[in-house]
From TrEMBL:
Keywords: Signal, Transport. It holds the Pfam family SBP_bac_5. It is found in: Cell membrane. PANTHER family: OLIGOPEPTIDE-BINDING PROTEIN APPA (PTHR30290:SF9), PERIPLASMIC BINDING COMPONENT OF ABC TRANSPORTER (PTHR30290). Residues 78-426 form the Solute-binding protein family domain. The lineage of its organism: Bacteria, Bacillati, Actinomycetota, Actinomycetes, Pseudonocardiales. InterPro entries: Peptide/Ni-bd (IPR030678), SBP_5 (IPR039424), SBP_5_CS (IPR023765), SBP_5_dom (IPR000914). The keyword Signal applies. It is a lipid-anchor. This is ABC transporter substrate-binding protein. It comes from the Bacteria. Belongs to the bacterial solute-binding protein 5 family.
Length: 515
């Protein structure tokens, strides 16, 4: 998992290759440099290389291994492995596949391979699935380049804006590779993807190694001989690796890490506000004190968001009390004003109205990252000022532990697409750990996810949703976090407006290095 708040880095090393390397770092004849480029993250929680085995955690190598149907760019959606996508209704997904594509093992990429792969996802009884993925009931392949997905619930919008733009949940694997490897495939999917870099090896607890694919459909975008995801502690250890040259690229959010990198003379290649990255939390609404909406509203009144931006985020964030990123065309802006401006007196009055005594202890669960810890310290101080004592429990995998530990607040300090936020509050949502249920909120989200309406209508429906969200308060949001890409001088081609930490092929296109 890419741990938020900790610097994540890349390391380079020589990779086996038949071509020789010139003194300027490129192969003879202009081929990519013979280098291993490592993408470093602070903790490997549950390494997954095959969608049906996914049980949580962020797996950025999956995007590079398998590519995605839709490429998300700052200019909007662009063709990836699919060249066209339509949604005849909110329960049907139709894809036109890119022709002439081959998997890394040379097997043709086609509709039969998509059906083979997504049938495996449907058949998995151990995979962690949200409602939109669970809604898939059939995959049809009427032609080599045509795929139709049938859903039993209206989640086509979520497929359009989330599932088809990633490959963690919907990787398409080479049927040949899967059948050849048998039961060992999921742990060793060599040759299985259609992305720019293929799986080579995993050294337990240390690194995931990928090598450049010889068959990628857009070969000119590959500037590296490989990518290594190296398990490196964030903060000082990663910065030390960058300074020594054992690491080449790092990713960081939070002012402390970014400013420390600047102070050490490292290059900040870009800073990007991710469209799916908003720090905030969710309440356990089925037990005291947060089964009372007044108590939930009290927390919102207690939040001084400017203190988070100027403190742990070091200015690399934008205040945002909504569930919709400021970078999204659906962001409501001033059309839906925040009804909970920072007001300690109102927070105390709301707690009194809810019957919550001063000094009441509440619990919070979060992943153990530097930025989470710094954020929760500020939250702890602000809640203490209104009479709530916050006990913070770090968890190696908070997302997996929330149902058993039932914290009063689950602090979701990571990126999550706003179109999929229903998993936290819809009935049977995979992260609805305290069985929150508000039919108006659920209906409003479904209306906003309607694929048949215009962009203006969609924006209005998201505004309507946000008004209801403010009213029923299943959770709270703090700010949109900026992600920085930090590199050594050897690395070039980092896009100014894309986030390579996502692992998405389009964000890595053109990145190269000299060594």
């Amino acid at each position: 998992m890419l741990a938020l708040g900790l610097v994540a880095g890349l390391s380079l090393a020589t990779a086996a290759c038949s071509s020789s390397t010139s003194s300027d770092g490129t192969g003879q004849g202009g081929s990519p440099a013979v280098a291993r480029t490592a993408y470093t993250f602070s903790e490997v929680q549950i390494p997954v290389f095959d969608s049906p085995t996914f049980k949580g955690g962020y797996q950025p190598w999956m995007q590079l291994m398998y590519d995605t149907m839709i490429h998300e760019t700052p200019a909007g959606a662009e063709p990836g492995l699919a060249t066209a996508w339509t949604f005849p209704d909110d329960k049907t997904v139709e894809l036109t596949l890119r022709e002439g594509v081959k998997f890394q093992d040379g097997t043709p990429f086609n509709a039969a391979a998509v059906k083979f792969s997504w049938d495996r996802v449907m058949a998995s009884t151990t995979m962690l699935k949200g409602a939109s993925l669970k809604s898939m009931t059939a995959v049809e392949a009427p032609a080599d380049n045509k795929v139709i997905v049938r859903l039993n619930a209206p989640y086509a919008y979520d497929w359009k804006n989330y599932l088809l733009r990633g490959s963690i949940y919907l990787s398409v694997v080479s049927p040949t590779a899967a059948q050849k490897a048998g039961d060992g495939f999921s742990a060793n999917p060599v040759g299985a993807g259609a992305g720019p870099y293929g799986f080579a090896s995993y050294t337990k607890g240390q690194k995931v190694t990928l090598t450049a694919s010889p068959n990628y459909w857009d070969p000119q975008t590959i500037g590296l001989s490989g990518v290594e995801f190296v398990n490196t502690a964030g903060g000082a250890p990663t910065l030390a690796g960058l300074k020594s040259g054992s690491l080449d690229v790092a990713f960081a959010n939070g002012g402390a890490n970014i400013n420390a990198a600047k102070a050490q003379g490292l290059k900040i290649a870009n800073t990007v506000v991710r469209p799916d990255w908003n720090y905030g939390g969710y309440f356990c609404g089925s037990k005291t004190p947060f089964n009372n909406v007044a108590a939930r509203r009290a927390v919102l009144y207690a939040l001084n968001r400017d203190a988070f931006v100027s403190g742990p985020y070091g200015g690399y964030a934008k205040v945002n009390p909504t569930t919709i990123p400021t970078t999204s065309p659906d962001f409501p802006g001033d059309t839906v004003p925040n009804p909970y401006a920072y007001d300690v007196a109102k927070a105390k009055a709301a707690l009194a109205a809810a019957g919550v005594a001063p000094g009441t202890t509440i619990t919070a669960l979060a992943d153990p990252t530097d930025l989470n810890a710094a954020t929760l310290q500020v939250l702890q101080s602000q809640l203490d000022a209104v009479g709530l004592k916050l006990e913070i429990t770090p968890s190696a995998n908070a997302f997996a532990d929330i149902r058993t530990k039932q914290p009063d607040i689950y602090f979701q300090g990571s990126g999550f697409p706003y179109a999929s936020q229903g998993i936290f509050f819809e009935p049977n949502g995979v992260a609805n750990y305290c069985n929150f249920d508000n039919p108006d909120l659920t209906r409003s989200l479904a209306a906003a996810l309607d694929t048949s309406i215009t962009a203006d209508q969609q924006k209005q429906r998201w505004a309507d949703f946000q008004r209801i969200y403010y009213d029923v308060v299943p959770g709270f949001n703090l700010a949109d976090i900026e992600q920085a890409t930090i590199t050594t001088s050897a690395v070039s081609g980092v896009p100014a407006d894309k986030d390579p930490s996502s692992g998405l092929a389009q964000a890595w296109a053109g990145i190269s290095m000299k060594k």
